[in-house]
Amino acid sequence: MRGSRWICCGLALLAIAGGAYWWSRDRLAGPVSASGAPLPAGPRYESAHYRATSTATPEQTRAVLAAAEALHAAYLQTFELKDEAGRAKHQLVLYGDRAQFRAHNRSSAWAEAYYLAPTCYAYYAEGVANPYHWMVHEATHQLNHELAGLKPAKWVNEGLASYFGASRLEGQRLRPGSIDPDTYPIWWLGELGLSGDPEADIRAGRIVALRTLIAGIDRADLNRRFNQYYIGYWSLTHFLFHYEDGKYAAGFRALIRDGGTLADFERRIGPVATIQREWYEYLQTVAAGDAGSFVEAGPATAPKPVLP
Hints:
Layout: E1 11-16, E2 19-24, E3 44-46, E4 50-54, H1 58-79, E5 90-95, H2 98-104, E6 114-116, E7 119-123, H3 133-146, H4 154-165, E8 167-170, E9 173-179, H5 198-203, H6 210-215, H7 219-224, H8 226-242, H9 249-258, H10 262-268, H11 272-293
Helix pairs in contact: 1-3, 3-4, 4-8
């Protein structure tokens, strides 16, 4: 995948679906961000809430900015936050392809994107159905930190990022909870092979016990069972927002503000053992239904999301 070369004379202004995007001919010659990670030598773009440096094509960059703006609007609505005027724009760095991203990567060697405050880093995945879900995932971490001021437990932070990142983008609108099959970790749902017995599936390593997800994990265990953890983070978040028409949604929002400890969970939601049974049945239904309708089997080698 390659970012195409282009020439811009003077300053150009583009309007796209109700949002304005600017880019200039100025190129960044090897500076670093406030985090110390290198920026690509590329043009700079702006949208209503984001400022991006990009070596992807203008069209690719505008698509990613549009997805980020859709996320921003959905995030504000989901958590009933105000769009404060004058707030500093969120920083994005978009590489033209995976090789370029890897050459500048300051995160785990297998990362497909990452958020290193105050900047999100990703690449445009040309030729796939959803080329921006990695950036949406990381931009959710950014909003958790910079917009909402959250300091959530790992399962909450990764669960929210996976939830928004795996939601469908329809036009200029992100629909939280509407599952996009062309996103991580959704493309692995059909591979779970759940038995109907949650305890047996926990012992077999098919799923991660909720107590383990919530209370914290051994990093080595997460590295060994990456897909199972991220399916757990995503599905628990989706369950808490949508189970029985949002039965737990209000408690979950309060739990997010609390931080998301095991004690927070049992106070706001209920006993872990009880919730695990409900969540397991929910996951089983979603996995079976999605696998038969719009979730295809994952690729032979699944790209892994970054560990924060």
